[in-house]
Amino acid sequence: PYLEASLAAVDAMDPRELEASLMRATIALPAPVLIEEVIGPLLARIGEQWAHGTLSPGKEHLASAVIRRVLESIMNACSPDENAPGIVVATPAGQLHEFGALLVGAAAAAFNWRVAYLGTSLPSRDIAEVASTTDSDVIALSVVYPTDDVELPAVLRSLRDHSGEDTTILVGGRAAPHYLEAIESIDAQLITNLGQLVEVLEKRS
């Protein structure tokens, strides 16, 4: 019901109702359930509608602003202990779409990970430096668009070179499967859906 109410609010261009619906879900549901069953599917549905041209730019921007606030609130509200595993979340250089990364950060925080969220389009050297500084042995990258970035394989190789072989690198997002060869070449793991990400987080928690 929270997902359907949220979708109805997006369709009606009602940001107050969308935020109210998501906040009700935040109160009623454990954070992992909220991520897996409400916010994740909501973002997927919005992405599908946008890709098919059935969602106007105004509705997409309206929903994005609200969902960003909710995801950030989840990351800020979770308080993992100092011995919790650490993860650095970002988009690689040239990748400007943020929601996949935000969703990963919120999901990791919900599973009691220490999250260093870096935002979009960060050079590989800087991502690796933060991972080292925060004692994080997992780096998660979101790759949404474009699907044919000729620079991305070199960016991924640079990240592996700077982070070392012991760091686990996860790469997900709508465009990620298009870079499977580059992902496999640096011994990184392709994440194709939210359920797979949750499985990885749970196993390593």
SSE order and pairing:
Layout: H1 2-11, H2 15-28, H3 31-51, H4 57-77, E1 86-90, H5 99-110, E2 114-117, H6 124-133, E3 138-142, H7 152-163, E4 168-172, H8 180-185, E5 189-191, H9 194-204
- Rounded mean pLDDT is 92
Order of strands across the main sheet: 2-1-3-4-5
Could you say which overall geometry the principal axes of the C-alpha atoms support? Answer: globular
User: Radius of gyration, Cα only, in angstroms?
Assistant: 17 Å
- In total, the number of strands is 5
Structural class based on helices, strands and sheet pairing: alpha/beta
Write down the secondary-structure element order.
HHHHEHEHEHEHEH
**Helix tally?**
9
Distance between the termini: 30 Å
Please bin the fraction of helical residues. 55-70%
Describe this entry's structure for a reader.
This protein is of the alpha/beta class and 205 residues long. The protein has 9 helices and 5 strands. It has helices at 2-11, 15-28, 31-51, 57-77, 99-110, 124-133, 152-163, 180-185, 194-204; strands at 86-90, 114-117, 138-142, 168-172, 189-191. Strands 2-1-3-4-5 form a 5-stranded parallel sheet, sandwiched between helices. The longest helix is centred in the N-terminal third of the chain and has 21 residues, at 31-51.
In short:
This protein has 205 residues and is α/β, with parallel strands linked by helices. It contains nine helices and five strands. Helix 4 packs parallel to helix 5.
Task: Name the features.
57% helix, 9 helices, 5 strands, 205 residues
